[in-house]
Amino acid sequence: MQGNAQQQAYDRGITIFSPDGRLYQVEYAREAVKRGTASVGVRTEDGVVLAADTRVRSPLLERESVEKLHKIDDHIGIASAGHVADARQLIDFARRQAQVNQLRYGEPIGVESLTKGITDQIQQYTQTGGARPFGVALIVGGIENGEPRLFETDPSGTPYEWQALAVGGNREDLIDFFEAEYRDDLDLDGGIDLALRGLDTVGDEGIDPEGVALGTIDVETEQYRRHETEEIKQYVEEADIGGDEE
């Protein structure tokens, strides 16, 4: 009984390490991320691609209300997976950071600086009593000094930089797919194709263009752009993926 009581203490206390050096609440937050539908990011020579599975569970639900892609600044976008409410808190924080940087220094915030600011905020909630970790992972993509950058934030508050990555459900399968298919010389259209084919591999019935959100930031304009459903349908047709037409 004493061992069970100790186990529960490590489970419930975010500020308490277990004897083997684990923070169970952070690990549980990672499990919450896995319960969300997938979001992916791909870095190419020409820019960054962000895509997210936004399928709805009911025909009565408005698709536009499923928010998984977010514009942070003209040159930065974020894709999320996990608890939507937690994501919104971090998205609002990121937007404030971008605005403050512009007002204070008169220049756009760097993608790496923004990511580390977000992860610093996340990390505070892993060592504060009476709080819980954020149950969300973010993909932060943008252009910095003319170069595409792509980062991941983890519920532990650790930033990672990637060439291509996935967060949320089926993460391992998507990472395996990207490791096999990613090339350093991809252009932006190639990155879009790779992202959509990745999401198609983990869907039970193939990818549905109406259930995908797609955003890009290209090196030439350094502008975040959200793609319309008709454009996504064209990309899906060109990639020869998706469910069979009836």
TrEMBL record:
Alphabetical list of Pfam families matching this protein: Proteasome, Proteasome_A_N
SMART domains in UniProt: Proteasome_A_N (SM00948)
Gene Ontology biological-process entries: proteasomal protein catabolic process; ubiquitin-dependent protein catabolic process
Location(s) in or outside the cell: Cytoplasm
Domain Proteasome alpha-type subunits: start-end pairs: 10-32
Documented activity regulation: The formation of the proteasomal ATPase PAN-20S proteasome complex, via the docking of the C-termini of PAN into the intersubunit pockets in the alpha-rings, triggers opening of the gate for substrate entry. Interconversion between the open-gate and close-gate conformations leads to a dynamic regulation of the 20S proteasome proteolysis activity.
Keyword field: Cytoplasm, Proteasome
Any one Gene Ontology cellular component term annotated for this protein: proteasome core complex, alpha-subunit complex
Any GO MF annotation of the entry: threonine-type endopeptidase activity
Main location: cytoplasm
Family the entry assigns: Belongs to the peptidase T1A family.
UniProt function note: Component of the proteasome core, a large protease complex with broad specificity involved in protein degradation.
Cited PANTHER family: PROTEASOME SUBUNIT ALPHA/BETA
Subunit field text: The 20S proteasome core is composed of 14 alpha and 14 beta subunits that assemble into four stacked heptameric rings, resulting in a barrel-shaped structure. The two inner rings, each composed of seven catalytic beta subunits, are sandwiched by two outer rings, each composed of seven alpha subunits. H.volcanii produces at least 2 types of 20S proteasomes: an alpha1-beta proteasome and a proteasome containing all three subunits (alpha1, alpha2, and beta) that appears to be asymmetrical with homo-oligomeric alpha1 and alpha2 rings positioned on separate ends. The 20S proteasome core is composed of 14 alpha and 14 beta subunits that assemble into four stacked heptameric rings, resulting in a barrel-shaped structure. The two inner rings, each composed of seven catalytic beta subunits, are sandwiched by two outer rings, each composed of seven alpha subunits. The catalytic chamber with the active sites is on the inside of the barrel. Has a gated structure, the ends of the cylinder being occluded by the N-termini of the alpha-subunits. Is capped at one or both ends by the proteasome regulatory ATPase, PAN.
Protein name in the entry: Proteasome subunit alpha
Organism, as annotated: Halorientalis persicus
